[in-house]
Amino acid sequence: MVGYSFMGAAHSQGWRTAGRVFDLPRTPYMAALCGRDSVAVRQAASRLGWAATETDWRKLITRDDVSLVDICTPGNSHAEIAIAALEAGKHVLCEKPLANTVEEAEAMVAAAEAARARGQLAMVGFNYRRVPALALARQMVAEGRIGTLRHLRVTYLQDWLVDPEFPLAWRLRKEAAGSGALGDLGAHIVDLGQHLAGELLAGVSAQIATFVTERPLPEDPTARGAVTVDDAAVFTGRFASGALASFEASRMAAGRKNSLRIELNGDRGSLAFDLERLNELQFHDQTEPAAHSGFRRILVTEEQHPYLSAWWPPGHGLGYEHTFVHQASDLVRAIAEERQPQPSFADGLQVQRVLAAVEESAHSDCVYTPLVHEPTQSSQSTEPTAAAG
Amino acid sequence: MVGYSFMGAAHSQGWRTAGRVFDLPRTPYMAALCGRDSVAVRQAASRLGWAATETDWRKLITRDDVSLVDICTPGNSHAEIAIAALEAGKHVLCEKPLANTVEEAEAMVAAAEAARARGQLAMVGFNYRRVPALALARQMVAEGRIGTLRHLRVTYLQDWLVDPEFPLAWRLRKEAAGSGALGDLGAHIVDLGQHLAGELLAGVSAQIATFVTERPLPEDPTARGAVTVDDAAVFTGRFASGALASFEASRMAAGRKNSLRIELNGDRGSLAFDLERLNELQFHDQTEPAAHSGFRRILVTEEQHPYLSAWWPPGHGLGYEHTFVHQASDLVRAIAEERQPQPSFADGLQVQRVLAAVEESAHSDCVYTPLVHEPTQSSQSTEPTAAAG
Amino acid sequence: MVGYSFMGAAHSQGWRTAGRVFDLPRTPYMAALCGRDSVAVRQAASRLGWAATETDWRKLITRDDVSLVDICTPGNSHAEIAIAALEAGKHVLCEKPLANTVEEAEAMVAAAEAARARGQLAMVGFNYRRVPALALARQMVAEGRIGTLRHLRVTYLQDWLVDPEFPLAWRLRKEAAGSGALGDLGAHIVDLGQHLAGELLAGVSAQIATFVTERPLPEDPTARGAVTVDDAAVFTGRFASGALASFEASRMAAGRKNSLRIELNGDRGSLAFDLERLNELQFHDQTEPAAHSGFRRILVTEEQHPYLSAWWPPGHGLGYEHTFVHQASDLVRAIAEERQPQPSFADGLQVQRVLAAVEESAHSDCVYTPLVHEPTQSSQSTEPTAAAG
Amino acid sequence: MVGYSFMGAAHSQGWRTAGRVFDLPRTPYMAALCGRDSVAVRQAASRLGWAATETDWRKLITRDDVSLVDICTPGNSHAEIAIAALEAGKHVLCEKPLANTVEEAEAMVAAAEAARARGQLAMVGFNYRRVPALALARQMVAEGRIGTLRHLRVTYLQDWLVDPEFPLAWRLRKEAAGSGALGDLGAHIVDLGQHLAGELLAGVSAQIATFVTERPLPEDPTARGAVTVDDAAVFTGRFASGALASFEASRMAAGRKNSLRIELNGDRGSLAFDLERLNELQFHDQTEPAAHSGFRRILVTEEQHPYLSAWWPPGHGLGYEHTFVHQASDLVRAIAEERQPQPSFADGLQVQRVLAAVEESAHSDCVYTPLVHEPTQSSQSTEPTAAAG
């Protein structure tokens, strides 16, 4: 694994736990952790449970005891590491967003396709697909429980930038982060929205805003520097089927800590979800008699639910990092079965293209910006492993 | 009053009850009800409590025992009746939307301004401003409790058109209704959003859709006719202050019966409301210590809350039609005090202009469509009477 | 009507509105209001819409234009007025609790039975049975939707006595009020619990408490007097069927304004309700597949729901005082059809006996105190009028 | 560790993870797992991450590489193993309930006190104290945020016995399980209720019931055997301070999966919690102005909250098994610091006494059954380690 901060810790928890909970065809071995600071990386490896350390990712990807490289670094290094790792004959798991630009993402997809011919597999880490309630929602959509989609609305709201004295971290500088709330939160909701809908966006119209344009420098709090990424993005979209979509990503929504809310309305029913209550899925069945119908709160903790048979009895809820356990488990199985894991790099590229269209529309008076989809491998299918224990 | 269906019944409940609950300077007398069918209007008058009937609104507006004309007819007759009533020296209450076109609405504003010089007052019936929880929200915004606005998001979702066999009622024909969900539901949320924000939209970008394009004819269910209005509208907006707004109005959101949800995020706090739980207001105070803060559910039934001192003890909630009691009460007071009641016809016109811009943008590839505001009477002030018992 | 404070105002709203909303076989005429203070009663009559006034209830009950006497006075005068009114040949509606003692209630039942033979009808005002969501709950229990009852739990929590400086009002003196939270709130939940369960309690075990034992005198806030009623009562019960019940009534539950919560668990499903969200009923169907089941929130505003066809479109909620409109409407119909209205005085007496057993148990170390039920008229049937428009 | 089913898996997750997340003074080493079936225990050890196995707990407790024995067996073996392990010089963690009888629990407390003099520490596993929201609730009560307690109400509802065809598992036989819902769920809520209140119950009055008295035998589903434990228990209690308490434990509450709900009402505020939404704590501050007050939902995921600084960013919720990570972490620290960990065996004994009094009352017509508390070590103090990262 490369990188060991927030995402690195979460992925480590996933690798460490997957084989303890799920019956896996292969047992993950946490071979080596890589980071530039040799002291810090050794401390992190000891804490997180990695057997060895490296300070140069180029050495990591050539180790004989490494068959899979998990990339948890900032987005601007994803392409280089992933392409090199694939070329070195390793499987790759890459954190989202796949890259900071469409061009990088395209190169990564090309590398992944070439690698696949050699037996190497690549996956992008949109972990929220593996929240059991959202995996269940995907199943229910696929089964026709909501019928023909009319509306999708998704918001992903946080509030850690409300305070204007929050410093100008690297995430607020375009050269490092690519974009702001859009790339960080927007990438999640574009992927999730399309995944749950089971179809891709045909075009978008967008507005973006930066509300606090200068912030204290981390290195010198008495000085201020320019914020060069967005604080928030609001956009609408249209699916090829004609369904309407609305999206909002913000780091400035006071009181909303991690509020990824998604709702789908179809002509046979509706589904609703809030990440702040991640063990619950709301479902309305429009085919029931009006007198007794209403949104029901499914507590997604039954053994019939995706991933749940491996965990605890009904009502004993899971948390955020379980998504990384599920991700690790699903990836190990896909590798053992020589199947393409979902979501693929191509899925990650498609999300990147939507984000690029959002920025283009926002800089062009919100004009509707169509998306062209290449006829690639369909990746919107539900994975067969989702419900296995 | 002209008209006696859904809105007529609701307004009658308002007129009948206002003086029984609030201490009013004048006692409303329900002089006459007007409708074209003489038998039906007599039955309605008897049921709803009106002393006399008319079958021609031109006669109604000249009656000596009528000092106020309440217009509850479809939108395409608003302008003619309202202008004539004002010219006949009557005060006027006109249901929303003010008119079906900007031109009609402009003529109505001109008539209202002329009438005002003669002492006649005109008001448009955006009744949701008088839900106590929303009146409280307006107070709190005005007091600075949420600080500088960053985000407004409002949805108004219903589901009565999900069934494709629902007939082609007049509300689904452009010539009668003007527009669909946009004019009916969108008018409410544009007014409310701006009213709560305390500022006007600078421009919008929009998509509209008609999902079911043909429906059975009411007069002959074996035949089908074209739906000529929208089923849903999704639009984003921007305030002059830079705050972002998103709006969605739909009659196709399965399971959402009357779900007008509104949320405002500012740099000092947030407010959230759902019309399906109209006695509650959610408030987050961003200035509190993080360890103990969170959205609180204010049960808006205390005597300190707007309108509540006239009603029941704490926790004994109000319903939908109470908004019409409050509207009647506020209007009677404004007339007695010779004050301009809120919202004015000018407010109604401004909403109409936003709706027109939404349609224009939707027909122009979602391009951002700016709004020009004339320097008229400010009408975004909170009314002094809101909290009185 | 006798009495014109909180309950008098609520009942007046009911009488004034019932015929305006429901198709009634007879039109209520609000003949006369009675109160001891002639000036105050005249003001109240004018405000609330009564045609005449009386200062002596003995004169009221002999008026020729009065056929029904509605008693809204404190509990210690109910028996005398109700018995005299029935003997004077009037129908009677009496607010709950039926009386302050079992003995008075027994005398009232005897008078009601004698009067019924002469064609006069008597009803006690447990208005919460007529919240549409609770009427729906009763229907669903009767239809077997929850199967065999296992658990009933009901709490009725308010907080207006949390402040120790709240004065020693008459409601806190035993000689006037009979009891405290028990008679006021407990009467409601005992009636509702048994009504929804469709069976009567076989016995109870109880604790009661007075947390603030002295309060300022209203007439002299510098002096204090003893609180002689309970602040709270907690009791368990058992139905003849073996189902377990728990009850709690309190005026000392900080933050709970009017929180009447009720839940029934059966072997086929469960129902849950909260008066602070009175337009909603929660229902869980245990017979559904586990993967998709959960408590659903039925928004009880559809025309198929009890009382709703007379009101507004779906999602346009009702409020507290609508229960009094429904009560007036149901009573007028029962009188016109010469049927016994529900709940009867016998139902009121049975509730009184439960409350007496609660006090007896609380004063006897919580010992289980059985209830003996006389073989009287069954009153647990659902009224046929409940769903009519 | 002895035992490796549900609780064994949960404790293993705790031991495996604690040192990966928290900075601990000592690193847990998972030395050996013990179970009677040598094949099964070896499989479990491999899966759960234990280095060795034993088939006789008497051998386990004498191993040199074992310094702490974690007991996850059924309740009837707790006393024997715990006492022997303490006498063998090991620290002990024992799952709840401490024992099946008061006598066994008393012997365990005596053994723990003797062991403590030698430096061995003993703890009982009431893991819910370590849900961050409940640890925060305890802090807030201790800080006086709710003032003087008036009411405690706790329910713990499950529904896995609603189906009458659920087999007669060992948990439904008194000889093995001691009691039913009372010992399993009731133990948790008695401990939690007293822990949060910060005081002990003075007495209880109780009803218990077994609704389904015969069930299919696991070994022969065509035959039926008698259920010899309770399905549900409902009881009320009183604290020495005069505060009232109500408790309900049931395995027959259709639709309630793991619904441990707790509410405390004091004269300065209230707290409410539901285990099905374990990242949330509801708080009402009675000292705030009525116009803006209400129950607030604190999302207990901020770094200021107990245990949270070691986990994820705000809004990224935890799950059920995190309580075992916290339990392991707190115990390791207590051992390193030679402090008595909380809750102690004496706390477990006191809970056992309450459960015994509940059964006694239920068998004696619900009569109030007082509890005598011995002057032992206070164990209601908040642990200093709760908030550490």
TrEMBL record, chains A, B, C, D:
Keywords: Oxidoreductase. GO terms for molecular function: nucleotide binding; oxidoreductase activity. Residues 1-117 form the Gfo/Idh/MocA-like oxidoreductase N-terminal domain. Residues 136-271 form the GFO/IDH/MocA-like oxidoreductase domain. The keyword Acetylation does not apply. It comes from the Bacteria. The keyword Oxidoreductase applies. PANTHER family: BCDNA.GH03377 (PTHR43818). This is Gfo/Idh/MocA family oxidoreductase. It comes from Streptomyces tardus.
